[in-house]
Design goal:
Layout lengths: L1 E6 L2 E3 L6 E6 L19 H14 L1 E6 L9 H11 L2 E3 L1 E3 L11 H4 L2 H13 L16 E5 L9 H14 L3 E4 L6 H10 L7 E4 L7 H9 L3 E4 L13 H10 L6 E3 L20 H11 L5 H16 L1 E3 L6
Parallel strand pairs: 3-4, 4-5, 6-7, 7-8, 8-9, 9-10, 10-11
Antiparallel strand pairs: 1-2, 1-12
Helix pairs in contact: 1-2, 4-5
């Protein structure tokens, strides 16, 4: 079987994804959640235009990290991908509790039922596209950890682990500034999840090289996305950390991203730096660091593409 990445418009070879922002948000519908500051991204024309700018700059793919029930809409993701020419990989899974309406379905489910839901969205269709001519499938699991393991819903962690084992699909995990990664990793290893299927997100907010080195050496991947966030001082944190990880030979364990969930980061909505800056600023800076071309390509797409790729049966044309 071929190893392919499931995009919203169908499976693709990992090398076809090109330059890939490994953790972002393209569409977030308003939700009556417990968080009054929950982000909303639903200006279709502005999002389409920004995706076209990303494509014109050389961008190939966006990995969308908004799970169902808290603002995801696979119909719009598919339409935006079709209109812009940018590949989009959608997700199933769960976000932080505060981004859901009161009494969210997932929190009432058993681990087995939640796993069945995740597997269904990975193998058949997102629930919001089940009645469409061409259903959209999720390409990975996005889950969210709270500041501690104990605060995170264990039954949903178990569900994600079971879905990962059943499908081979990767898990991207939101962390609260890199906290409790060691505990989450220990849990997933005990659940027989291959560490090669794990991506821990936002961990550059905890720029301790020893911590990053130890996690990377287990086979898990680390996602960095504070390049535009001045409060995390990227010039003294993420950029030096990235250089140390590359020097240690761990560049294949890193995925770069921008995590632009808020409209003030989108140029077409009056903000900065915009989707295209992943190419024009981050990738361009890497290209000036005297790195091997393969290293630049891996950091800005190749690494995450290989994590997202899973075996697909060849289609019969007889």
């Amino acid at each position: 079987m071929d190893e392919l990445v499931t995009t919203v418009l169908g499976p693709l070879a990992p090398e076809a994804l090109g330059i890939t922002d490994g953790h972002n948000h393209l569409w977030i519908e308003p939700v009556a959640s417990a968080d009054p500051e929950a982000p909303v991204l639903n200006d279709e024309a502005a999002i389409r235009q920004e995706l076209q700018q990303y494509r014109a700059a050389g961008g190939g793919t966006i990995v969308d990290c908004q799970p169902g029930g808290c603002g995801r809409n696979g119909r719009y993701l598919a339409q935006l991908s079709h209109d812009s020419g940018v590949h989009v990989v959608a997700c199933t899974g769960f976000h932080l509790r505060r981004y859901y309406p009161p009494h969210p379905m997932l929190w009432q489910m058993t681990a087995e039922a939640a796993s069945d839901l995740f597997v269904g969205e990975l193998l058949e269709s997102l629930y919001e596209t089940q009645d469409t001519v061409t259903p959209v499938r999720a390409g990975f699991l996005k889950i969210a950890g709270e500041a501690s393991f104990e605060q995170t819903p264990r039954h949903l962690l178990e569900a994600a682990a079971a879905a990962c084992r059943a499908t081979g699909c990767a898990i991207e995990m939101h962390t609260e500034k890199g906290l409790a990664v060691e505990a989450f990793l220990e849990f997933f290893l005990a659940q027989q999840v291959d560490p090669q299927r794990l991506v821990f997100c936002h961990v550059d907010k905890r720029p301790d090289f020893g911590f990053h080195e130890a996690i990377a050496q287990t086979g898990a991947m680390l996602e960095y996305d504070t390049f535009y966030r001045t409060k995390y001082d990227p010039e003294t944190a993420v950029w030096p950390l990235l250089e140390k990880m590359i020097a240690a030979g761990l560049e294949t364990q890193i995925v770069l991203a921008t995590d632009m969930a808020y409209s003030h980061m989108w140029q077409t909505m009056g903000g900065q730096p915009g989707l295209a800056a992943f190419v024009t600023q981050i990738r361009s800076r890497l290209a000036k660091m005297e790195l091997a071309a393969a290293t630049v390509n891996n950091l800005t797409g190749g690494n995450i593409a290989r994590r997202l790729a899973v075996p697909h049966k060849k289609e019969s044309h007889s």
